[in-house]
Amino acid sequence: MSYAYLFKYIIIGDTGVGKSCLLLQFTDKRFQPVHDLTIGVEFGARMITIDGKQVKLQIWDTAGQEAFRSITRSYYRGAAGALLVYDITRRDTFNHLTTWLEDARQHSNSNMVIMLIGNKSDLESRRDVKREEGEAFAREHGLIFMETSAKTAANVEEAFINTAKEIYEKIQEGVFDINNEANGIKLGPQHSPAAAGGMAAGGLGGSQGGGCC
Amino acid sequence: MASLLASSSRAARDDQCTSGPEEGEEEEDDDVFVSSAGEPLSAVAVWLRPRPLLDRLRRAEPPDYRIDEFGFRVEEEDGPEQSSSKLLSTPFAESPKHRCGAVPSGLVWLQWIAHLEFTHNSETAPMSWENMAPVLPRTDKLRAMVRGGVPHSLRPQIWLRMSGALRKKLQADMSYAEIVKVSSCDSLMCNRQIEKDLLRTLPSNVCFSSLSSPGVPRLRHVLRALAWLYPDIGYCQGMGMIVANLLLFMDEEEAFWLTATVIEDLLPASYYSSTLLGIQADQRVLSALIATYLPDLSALLEQHDIELSLITLNWFLTVFASVLHVRILLRVWDLFFYHGSLVVFQVALGMLRMKEEELCKLDNSADIFNALSDLPGTIDDVEKLLEVSFHVSSSLTEVVVESHRRRHLAFLMNDQGTLMASPSRVANLPKQQVNRPQQVDPCERPVDETERVRTAAAGAVLVDAACLCSAVQLEPRPAGALFEPGDWRREAERAAPRQEVVRRLTLTSSLPPPAAHERRYVEELRPAGGAAPLPGPDRRHRARVTRYSRGRARHETSVVYVLGLNLSTWCCVPAGRLVGSLRSNPDFPLLSRRAWASISAALVKYGETRRRAQGR
Fold it and tell me: Region Disordered: which residues (chain B) (predicted)?
């Protein structure tokens, strides 16, 4: 299926916070209470519509265990968006956010849009991290914030789509150079030959036009 | 002959039946299921079969999902793969008919028994697993038979004897039961993480799918025991995959020793440690081998800027357990337990070769990525896979892999050293308000930090050595060998200014001396939060301290060894002169005498190898 843009996302956060479940809920619209351990990286993809345009999200789901962080550097390369996930019922997963954020900022391009996600919002009775704390953290670090539940699907669509919208806006504002794939954005097949070939020299303005028409 | 066969066959079966801990009464079940090979769970050790499920099957009230011989739930939508004739054509576990050679594949079983009898050297003692030598002699005959596949019922015993696991078990200071005991009351370590992952390891297998499944407590014991035995590793996700798959066929003690053998002997060092340095190096080795053996694929990956290690890390970390169908996996493991890690490379190259043409037809990176990550699941013909694997990598040897490995390990340590040496570089973040956990979680031992520093220091030494060579004006070696002359110089330039070198050397000297390590070990053993000192060190504690310091020494030596080898590869000078130049340099006062001795020895050894190679 053809698309106007392709965005690369990564999902990061401690082990067991529900990264793979979020992905499954978003791509397959189902919840699997016991998910296989993610070792290395898994992939998912889904098409969404933003501003009347087809956008393909290519999502990389990564392993969360501490040891794997030394090798996650290459995950970040060329990602346009990141979902940074913690578990609202486990404070330690929230406490580790700063180190995840450091990793993300260090190894990715500076324009990457990061969405902070407090997952497992259906487990209100076991809540260990207040919503306000998540909001404060997001505000302080310039992230978008949302609480989701991969189980009930609450806010899952929104999390992925809002991130995409933000990326899309940045493209419109000319912040992202969409001719540079290192930014995690690709023009769709029907757009790219003209845009990449003919307008590369024209820079942002030109390629943006390519995406719009 | 016939009686020997009968007795050995009984021995093999008795052994399999009785070696499970909670055994005995289920023996009758064995007959029911073995005689109907191909039935659900028929290829799984009897003690691992969930009783309630067996009851339902016996009452002919099967659950609403299909279960295969290995206890995996088969989803009907998996159709194409599962119904593949190659995969399902023959039942996996042999029935008694096989064992008397009444069916063609039974001949293989007889052949194995005959081979075992042949190698069983005692004339008088009856042939049973107990009387058989713990290590099978490595012969051409055995190698050929392993290539053809080990009969399923013999696998546990053969694997233990091919890999050296049984010898390890017999020579160990501590028994498995003792280790389980100490590791279960050990409230530290990674037991909490293990607990979380127990149900996530093989969720689709009925032997591991719920807390009451028979596989789960066994998996818990083995993982805890391994974490206790290897404090530098603890628990690494991915290990569980190997253990769980082994537990399907052998009892937990055997699975434990076999996994220990995988960690210690079959795979190179640091595959599962907190740095994952060993497995990262192997990913780079794979990439180098692809460039040699599969140039088309290599070009494709390069053209689309695809980082293959994201996909293959998983293959290597679990020795394919997480990606191959178990029927294929077992045949690969037959070879792996005989040949070691070379097989992992051969099979990885073979799989890629089988799909190379298909992959090269794809024209966008997302499709290529997906095709690559789905690739192992599409393999359904193990004979073809092995044939292609050995064909494509026919010139690949342990030595080639090892020399690539050393080189990439050096680069990696180098990178990490560089990373570690300039923590100020990560500071472009807003000021952090969130507090790090105040209390050190006893489950997350601080060992990781030390390990990281140690590795970083090792990497730094390497870079510094390169700098130093430049400082003492050693000539770079001529072109055409393992390293291009420019390589080490580039590394040296990357390594930054001179004061940085000195700083890093200081870092090297901050490695904790063994005594501090042992002290910390004792600290660790102190009951959490309790001030009561431990009772005087008993045998077990002493054994562990010894193991700890031995491990440390091994680590140190390997670092030094890598350093020495790379120095000699980088520089075209006789060993003696190199060591002399380094020693006389005031920037290198911190390496111990033992370290110099090791470097020296490594260099001499390397020089000899090279001379031999050149002479030939």
Answer: 1-35, 528-548
Judge: A102–B434 Cβ closer than 8 Å, yes or no: no
Compute the distance between CA of residue B50 and CA of residue B42 in angstroms, rounded to an integer.
12
Question: What pLDDT does A188 receive?
Answer: 76
Contacts of A111 (CB under 8 A, 6+ apart): A80, A170, A175, A176, A183
DSSP secondary structure of B509-572 = HTSPPHHHHHHHHHHHHSPTT--PPPPSP-HHHHHHHHHHHHHHHHHHHHHHHHHHHHHHHHB-
Strands, E assignment, B447-504: none
Residues 6+ apart with CB under 8 A from A88: A94, A118, A119, A120, A121, A123, A127, A128, A129, A131, A134, A147
Domains and CATH numbers, chain A: 5-187 (3.40.50.300)
**Is the CB of residue A95 less than 8 Å away from at least one CB of chain B?**
yes
Give pLDDT tens digits for B509-544: 333 333 344 444 444 444 444 333 333 445 555 555
Res B268 pLDDT > 60: yes
Contact B434 A98 (CB under 8 A): yes
Identify residue B607 by its one-letter amino acid code: G
N- to C-terminal Cα separation, chain A: 18
pLDDT in tens, B138-182: 889 999 999 999 999 899 999 999 999 999 999 888 899 988 988
Phi-psi region of B68 (alpha: psi -120 to 50; beta: other; left: phi over 0): beta
User: In this structure, how many other beta carbons lie within 10 angstroms of the beta carbon of residue B193?
Assistant: 20
In tens, the pLDDT along A172-190 reads 888 887 777 777 787 776 6
Nearest CA in chain A to B435: A95
Interface size A-B, in CB pairs within 8 Å, comes to 106
Task: Tell me the pLDDT tens digit for each residue of A130-166.
Answer: 999 999 999 999 999 999 999 999 999 999 999 999 9
DSSP β-bridge partners for residue A113: A81
Whether B306 and B367 have beta carbons less than 8 Å apart is answered as no
At position B531, the amino acid (one-letter code) is: A
Please give the structure tokens belonging to residue A167.
């990326």
